[in-house]
Amino acid sequence: MNFSPRSAMLLALSLAAGVVLIALAVRQLRRGRSLRAGVAVVLAALLLLSGAALQKNRVTQGPLTWDGVAATIWPKPIAAPSAKPLTKKEGKADGILSDTGEGWIAPKLAKAWGKAPNPEYKADLKEFHPEGAGTTGTYFTTTWKGPQSGLKMDVIVWAPKGWQKLHGLGVIEMLHGYPGGISGVPAAMKFDQQMTDYIAKNLIQPSVIVLPLLRPDGAPTRAFDFPGEPKVGTWAARDIPAMIANNFPVSRAKDMWTLAGVSEGGYTAPALAVLARDTFGAAVSLSGTNNAEYGPLAQAPEDVQAQMALTSLLSKAPDLAVYAYSGGAEPKSNKLLTQLAAMAKRPGVTTLFRDAGRGHGWDTWKHAFPGVMKWVGSVQKNKAKTEVAAVAKPPAKSAPVAAEEKNMHGIYAVTGAASALALALFGWRVWIWRRRSAADDGVAARRGVPVGRHGSETVNKASNENGGSSMAAEPARVGIGAKVARFIGWDMLATVLVVAAVFVWLVLALNLWGQWLRSEEDILGLLIQLGLPYDG
To answer: Were both Cys, which of 13, 123, 242, 453 would link to 112 (CB 3.0–4.6 Å)?
Structure first.
């Protein structure tokens, strides 16, 4: 049995237990036990919330281990970034933006980039078959320590069939988002089957796909070097390319190297490609944003964030080919496309594509993958052209943060009003059953029947044994249909609405901690991540 954080069995058990607790809450309510009914309501909401988290995890390929879940809920504190000016020698090095005054990655490629093999960059690559992935080509996995970064993390590599006899392979390094990892990506993207087909049709040069992990300590995804932080930028932009170059017959030409990313990786991939433009000739952003959303950079001063915005960085790398994609129902990614459209006249290729009716998740990115790979193939063949027709009519200007917060205030107000009505209905049912229990207790007292701690239930039993009747006594014969109808009547409606209210307030309480939802569009994005069909 599989009880991982994306297990279908665990999801089914969570939802089933939530439904059982709702039924138990109704039963306790009808017996006049309002406290027990309330406890059952809260537990039901918590179980259903857990089920929603599991479903989101399954759709978005979130943390795939319980340690990853724990790190997401209780992340390690992240040190605030501090500026450390480069030396004049470092400032002139390839791959570093000297005018930023920040050492975001190691300034130079390792000596391993040369044609001579370097033992430090040989990795123990083991063939394996990812669960749920295709079987074309060869998958490799390794846990490898980068000499420059000092980080030891997992890496997955896919190579086309017969790669050993090929030379000048292209490289597509793909960065994951947050929360997330790499183990579920091959199954989610099914890229091996598509790549084999594109290579056979000569739409793309034979290429390897590299998936490096970017979370050395379980903290939010980040891909830059910060003082006191793991050197994730050097790991992704220096160590990984050198390791691939020492283990596979790849090309050293920049046009054959692409750095791609999804979600938070959709920001970090183009940013890193600019910083390491001595290695990468192309960058792909799938559902990315103009600025970092997580990690130290998201907490940096505004002037630092402005320096590291994609619109700022890309202006300093005019020859870098860029492909940016938005699923349509992604406000922040739509805004990035609009911002990049204004830069379409830059010398490098800028291709923008805004899809229709798609949200934020692996289903969307798998759908986008064919177009991305055809574009990468055109870059490899120096045939890529700038295309921005998909965003010729940019979406309306995004509302300021204050307006978004006002929108959330409206959501809180509507939720509060709906919750008050649900509580009023539930309170009315509690009052009805307590009134019946009190009336039965009064009847019992007049007849000399002892009243037990179960209230009207004891009275009913005693009254029936004595041949009497009770206000709460039911007819001797009640059909199953009538019992079900009574059970799913007002009491079930009141209980379900209260559970829904508790569920929503738990989500909003978590939002105060995580700040994931700041507008109605963010809520739509969350629903899409839960698997809600969206047709635009």
So the answer is: 242
Amino acid sitting at position 256:
M
Contact 419, 501 (CB under 8 A): yes
DSSP 169: B
Could you tell me the pTM of the whole model? 0.67
Give the number of residues written for the chain.
Answer: 536
| Beta-bridge mates of residue 328 | 358
Distance CA 260, CA 265 (A): 7
pLDDT, tens only, 288-341: 999 988 777 877 788 888 888 999 888 888 889 999 998 877 888 888 888 888
Q: Are strands 138-145 and 152-159 parallel, antiparallel or unpaired?
A: antiparallel
Q: Which two tokens stand for residue 201?
A: 């049709």
The answer to whether the CB of 398 falls within 8 A of the CB of 338 is no
Segment 501-524 shows an average pLDDT of 70
CA distance 273 to 271: 5
Q: Taking the CA atoms of 462, 464, 465 and 467 in sequence, report the sign of the dihedral they define.
A: positive
DSSP 131-155: TT---SSEEEEEEEE-TTT--EEEE
Place of tokens 């630092």: 304
Q: Which residues pair with 323 in a beta bridge?
A: 284, 351
Q: Which residues does 489 contact at the CB level (< 8 Å), separation at least 6?
A: none
**Residue 415: CB partners within 8 Å, gap ≥ 6?**
501, 504, 505, 508
User: 151-167: per-residue pLDDT in tens?
Assistant: 999 999 999 999 999 99
Measure the CA dihedral 16/505/288/260, to 10°: -30
Q: How far apart are CA 51 and CA 16, in angstroms?
A: 9
50 Cβ contact list (under 8 Å, min separation 6)? 14
Strands (E), 350-438: 350-358
Q: Quote the CA–CA distance of 295 and 222 in Å, as a whole number.
A: 6
Q: How far is CA 399 from CA 8, 288, 293, 403, in A?
A: 39, 19, 18, 6
Average pLDDT for 513-520 = 58
Domains and CATH numbers, the chain: 8-60+402-518 (no CATH), 82-396 (3.40.50.1820)
| CB-count burial class (<10 Å; 0-12, 13-18, 19+) for 165 | exposed
Could you tell me if 450 and 430 are in contact, meaning their C-beta atoms sit under 8 angstroms apart?
no
Q: How far apart are CA 225 and CA 271, in angstroms?
A: 13
The band of 405, judged by pLDDT with boundaries at 50, 70 and 90, is very low
